[in-house]
Specification:
single chain, mainly alpha, Growth Hormone, Chain: A, two-stranded antiparallel ribbon, globular
Amino acid sequence: MLPLNQRVKRTLTLVTGLFECLGFAGAIFGWASLVFVLKKEGYFSDLCVPLHNGSDSRNGSLDCHEQDEQFALIFTLASFMDSFTTLPSGCVFDYLGTRAAQGIAITMYTTATLMIAFSTAVTSILMFPAASLLAVGGGTFYITNMQVGNLFGSKRSTVITLYNGAFASSSSAFLLVKVLYEAGISLMSIFLFISSLSVVHVLRTLFLLPQRHIPFPLPKGYTYGVTCGAPGLRASYQTQELPGKQTQALRGGEAESVADRGEKRRWKWMLREDMNSLDSLNPLPQAPTALGGDEEKVRSFRSCVLSKLFLTHLLWISVLQLRHYLFIGTLNPMLTLLAKGDTSEVSRFTNAYALTQICGVFCAPWNGIIMDWLQRRDNIPDSAPDSAALKRLSGMRAAVLSLVITITQCVLFSISASVPILEVQYLSFILQVINHSFLYGGDAAFISIVYPSCHFGKIYGVGQTLSAFISLLQYPCFALVQGPLQNNPLYVNVGFIVLVATTYVHPINLYLHWQREVRERNREQSAPVKSPGAFLPSPLGNRNTPLSTPSPPNRSDSPRLRNPTQFNPRASPQQHLALRKATEIAFPTR
């Protein structure tokens, strides 16, 4: 069991990360509540013109569709920047570490809140950069907090999806802004207070987060954050994090470079082939790795993003994300249209929408709980041969069900949002918050299961960046409804129902990919051993090769077969000793 101070520290990291995601990370998605306040403040009110109808003109009715278009454009650009900058943010996180990424996020978020605090109706144009900075800063908070799940072992998926739920629920932060504004507190005072909370972010970054990354699985004795110990004291366990490489735990003299580890792996392959799979000498001691002892050839980043699986994943996240962005960005004008301009009704339904968003933090863990439960049913022990590969296969099968549930939710949400009845939108709000939580939780969990963890930030960033260009279509859709369709969104909504249904291709593709990997694994394990010396013990112990490790070329005809110690002049004395013993067994002197 962990020492008490470490348990307290990890609990504080979890709780403060939840606060950061819940209060800041996705606040931009509470745009409808903020738009209500900004309209009251007169932002872009100069774009409203009297209606041409004589009776409406005498009643003071205004046509504010151009004002709505400006707010829709601001949200379109902000949501685009939120997704588009995920790749740069992921690269900063991967290469510069947590502390640098958090520093950038804090700077952008504080700048955004100060710009809103000091803006007025005259300077409404400041909302364009402010909303974009708010979205980018919040998105970076979200990325850096995903690694906190690594601190909790088997509950990792649950923690990740809990944070995704907090991210979805953070849109309710602007509901609090709306309530405080209606209570008589000025918009400037509210956002100045939000700016002052940056002190909390700074303290958390220093004391409750690592300078670089949190590895998975955690090395024994792993610590993180700035400590207040005596000068010169250092943690007994350090973590070496290399750009673009798997995190590797190091203790004292057991440190080895990634290049040496790759050389050792190549040497093992040659030895296994040339010595005809010798099989029972004591294994050599190895430095602990982030893979928990299961050595795995890491796929290249290029091969990951060019795979068919990633392409269908990109289709899935782009379409579902666009459906949500369009609903959020056009919620205020849609409610205004259905309520026939009654501002009290619009305010009531806006509050109802924001309140349902709070439930996102409770809905999101369902996805992770389902995935963790399905994986626990397989009961794969950490000590099992190829446990990393077996757990990956188990996770892929669990992700199939998660994806099917998420798409079905989005289809139902799209159908509900298409009904032009104001009361039905309560159901739309509920389905939207549940689906939003499942969407981003499933996205992060899918990438962490299918692809190497050293590429998580980059792959997640590429997916969000490419889907950002698709999200730009929300503004043309809004303009289409406002113009040619004359405020009738029926055709657009029906089109989205069909489009969302096409994303079922992603779980189908993932299921077929899982079946292929299972067949390949079974074929490798059932392959007959042709070598007459295969019954002999291996000088390196474990003969099991992970799924992602390709079979080395056959070197049975190599002229170097009789002296395998020549293959690696950098081999340690223990390795030379094991090789001599293996040679004596395989080629006894007569």
